[in-house]
Amino acid sequence: MEENKDIRFTPKDFKSDQEVRWCPGCGDHAVLSEIQKALSELGIPKEKYVFISGIGCSSRLPYYMNTYGFHGIHGRAAAIATGVKTVRPDLSVWVMTGDGDSLAIGGNHFIHAVRRNIDINLVLFNNEIYGLTKGQYSPTSGRGHVTKTSPFGTLEEPFSVGELVIGARGKFFARTIDNNVSLSTEIFTRAAKHKGTSVVEVLQNCVIFNDGVHDVFAGRDVKEDRTITLRHGEPMIFGKDRMSGLILEGLKLKVVRIGENGITEKDILIHDAHEPNPGIHYFLANMRYPEYPVALGVIREVEGDSYETAVHAQIEKIQSGSNIKCMTDLLNSGTVWDVD
Amino acid sequence: MGKKPQIVEKDEVVIRFSGDSGDGMQLTGTLFSDTAALYGNDLATFPDYPAEIRAPQGTVGGVSGFTIHLGHYDVSTPGDYADVLVAMNPAAIKANVAWIKEGCTIIYDKDNFTEKNIQKAGYISDPIAEEKLEDYNIIAAPITSMVKEALKDFGLDQKSVFRTKNMFALGMVYWMFDRKLTYTEDYCDTKFKNKPEIAQANKIALRAGYYYAETIEALTPVRINPANIAKGRYRNINGNTATAWGFLAAAENAGLRLYIGSYPITPATGILEELAARKDLGVISFQAEDEIAGICSAIGASFAGYLAVTTTSGPGLALKSEAIGLAVMAELPLVIVDVQRGGPSTGLPTKTEQSDLFQALYGRNGECPVVVMAAISSSDCFRMAFEAARIAVEHMTPVLLLTDGYLANGSEPWKIPDMESLPSINPPYPQPDHGEYIPYRRNEKRLNRYWAVPGTPGLEHRIGGLEKTIRGTVSYVPENHEYMVKMRDEKVKKVSEKVPDIEVFGDAEGDLLLTGWGGTYGHLLTAVRELRAEGYRISLAGFNYINPLPANTAEVFGKFRKIAVCELNLGQFADYLRMKLQEFRYHQLNKVQGLPFTVKEIKEFCIKLLEEK
């Protein structure tokens, strides 16, 4: 979307008259205000925003936004959004979805939206659990996770959101944590400005059914040592003391300490989010604690043709070269004959 | 061209071209029907595709046929039984022997009746003898060797030579029906513009066939004089193209752009293909990843202000059910086309049936009414697609349009409508004097809500699948839910203002009223016409509108001693009528063979019913 610096809002302008009904302490509250904050600074007229969702706790978000909104059916938000954005490239289209909505029942629409690179911003709230149905495992629940439908532990390998995005030839993938206001706001802004499908995975806490699921690396006291915030053009350094970093050793990333074993800051990889080859992005997106820090920030941001732009360009091209301009032209085209 | 023997004049004839799926029978039939239409005959055609993509060559499963019924009066069906069968191989005899008239003319490619091919078709040595067809007018033409001979100096490879066999056969049929070759020759020149040697080879084969037919003196030339049809400009159109064009016309008259979100499925794919080719008229076509994405993207496009349609066939409609419910709840305009085929499950994909009526009416969770309508002929698909779109937009409701495989693939000459004669379509946008935009505030008369399109300042609102108050707030209040359920139901009932009265063909009263819905109309009409000519007091009412029913239905039914409902299922419309109009007794004629009715079986049924007390 084009930015217009004369358009200024406050986050409050995006609050609807609806009472927010998530559980107290739910990570969704923070995401809502982060989105409202990001939107207030984007310089896009309010009537141009459309928030679309499927089913699940996260999918209630459009009701709380004072914009155009469509609360769809389970898993289909990406498909509905595809229709909206394809016909109306002038709109800023946001999909609010969860790990169940987008990776289980809506998995097909998710990968195909990403593959087409349609210019939507898809915010995937990943709490690794089904919250609205009160606590069943999801496609991102870790193997062995005990839930109401896996009382003896799940036997399934979880999906990794970033891996799916890259596998579907995605051009934009970012990850943030629900309570990291400044990083989330920054990422939502980047996602909005990216032309093409932007997938933002929000590691979100379900306070009731999966409380603390991300705490092992995202907890207040450990997150600086167990996560790494990536920024394009900056070295991959992390840790409370900013002395840990990532290097490439053979075909794998490796965590090193600056100043140990002859490693200097110069040896640390520089993050290149714009590299079309997804190799390193794939490694970064799949880093898991404890072997690695979990990557946050914009991991992949590559330019590409967006679907809806190509659709309209193709129509314009065909129209300029065709002598069928209206229905009457079409009705009288080809083999016709007159009966007198 | 040489002197002709005495020409016999006939009122009508049914010709069936049949051969292996690689023999070009569809093209041959199309070229013949175009020529007949240009000459001024009325006609109806029906292609019969093999179910398999590529069944083994020479087998019955791989037979592809094309039937043309032409006449010098009003033709309403592609004909039950053929007067002329062109059989390119033995399997074509096997596949069609049940569908030819006694004593008919059979032209076959003698060279292709090899021992191997005969056995592949399931015969022992002589198909003609084994089917007891010796007394028929059998023309054993050496088509393969004739085209080889005719094109021997052309330097074409054998495959290209053999591909002109259909033109040879077509030439023979042209001579037989006293037709000019001009249209087909022009077609060859255009089609093979960049391969003049292929164009020339086809034209030579065509002429060779024509002269061969003349030379053998075994055929009697037949003339079907032009039909007395209304003045105007005509074209041939099949049901799928007519459906696509109906939507285009509706979009133009509504001042909207058209969006189609669909997933390929037989026999509905032709609509998506036609609209995908219509970028010149600004259509946005989206081949979705599945049926659900097709309809959901269409709902999104509708929310964003487009005229949105999704097209499918039976199994695809099942997949779309939940999303149709969403469109009912969101009260957005949307047309869903179901080109019915044999079911259940994958069923008979290439065959026709009318067994999705209940699915269309009731196949959703909750109280979920939609408008249900049906096209009665291939060209009627245009009018009904237009009307479906008009109702969807003006009443803010999903509309389900039922066609079927028979209408979709069949074609007939169609008088091109004047766009200005079609009604305008007025989308119910919120007006300035409405004040604050309330999403489910309704038009008092029609009960439609108003269409506030994203991008419009000040009309921001939220809608969706959860039950809501008129302000769009999610609500579990019991009375509110019941109120909204009734409003949605009442809104669909109010569509009856756009449903024209049912017209009766024949007298307004009598011994028997034949009724049906959708694609059986042509066969029912022909049967009723013939029975009336034979003196029976019989009339016909063919339904385009099923939900809501035309307002005068009970009045029409009340004027007849007996009512019979004919449909290609086990009696779904009959049961629907029993529920809606309980005061009448309904007799039934049903057929579930993946085939249209034959006029013969309808007539036999009617006569028996009329003879019963």
Topology:
The complex is a heterodimer of chains A (340) and B (613).
Chain A: H1 27-40, E1 49-53, E2 68-71, H2 77-87, E3 92-98, H3 99-105, H4 107-116, E4 120-126, H5 161-167, E5 172-177, H6 181-193, E6 198-203, H7 215-218, H8 223-226, E7 227-230, E8 237-238, E9 244-249, E10 252-257, H9 279-285, E11 294-301, H10 307-320, H11 327-331, E12 337-339
Helix pairs in contact in A: 1-6, 3-4
Chain B: E1 8-10, E2 12-20, H1 25-39, E3 42-48, E4 63-71, E5 82-87, H2 90-96, E6 100-109, H3 115-120, H4 127-130, E7 137-141, H5 143-150, H6 158-162, H7 165-176, H8 182-191, H9 196-216, E8 222-224, E9 232-238, H10 239-254, E10 258-262, H11 269-276, E11 284-287, H12 291-303, E12 307-312, H13 314-330, E13 334-340, H14 357-362, E14 371-374, H15 380-395, E15 398-404, H16 405-409, E16 411-415, E17 462-464, H17 478-493, E18 510-517, H18 521-533, E19 538-543, E20 545-547, H19 553-557, E21 560-567, H20 572-580, E22 586-590, H21 599-611
Parallel strand pairs in B: 1-8, 2-5, 5-6, 6-7, 10-11, 10-12, 12-13, 13-15, 14-15, 18-19, 18-21, 21-22
Antiparallel strand pairs in B: 2-4, 3-4, 9-16, 14-20
Helix pairs in contact in B: 1-7, 5-9, 7-9, 8-9, 10-11, 10-15, 12-13, 18-21
Give an overview of the whole structure:
The complex is a heterodimer of chains A (340) and B (613). Chain A has 340 residues and is of the alpha/beta class. Chain A is 28% helix and 19% strand. Chain A has eleven helices and twelve strands. In chain A, the strands form two sheets. Chain A has an eight-stranded mixed sheet with strand order 2-1-3-4-6-5-11-7, with helices on both faces. In chain A, strands 8-9-10 form a three-stranded antiparallel sheet. In chain A, α1 crosses α6 and α3 packs across α4. Chain A is globular and about 95 Å long. The mean pLDDT of chain A is 96. Chain B is built from 21 helices and 22 strands. In chain B, the strands form five sheets. A seven-stranded mixed sheet of chain B has the order 11-10-12-13-15-14-20, sandwiched between helices. A six-stranded mixed sheet of chain B has the order 3-4-2-5-6-7, with helices on both faces. Chain B starts with 7 loop residues before the first strand and ends with a helix. The longest helix of chain B has 21 residues. Chain B is α/β, with parallel strands linked by helices and 613 residues long. β12 of chain A pairs antiparallel with β9 of chain B.
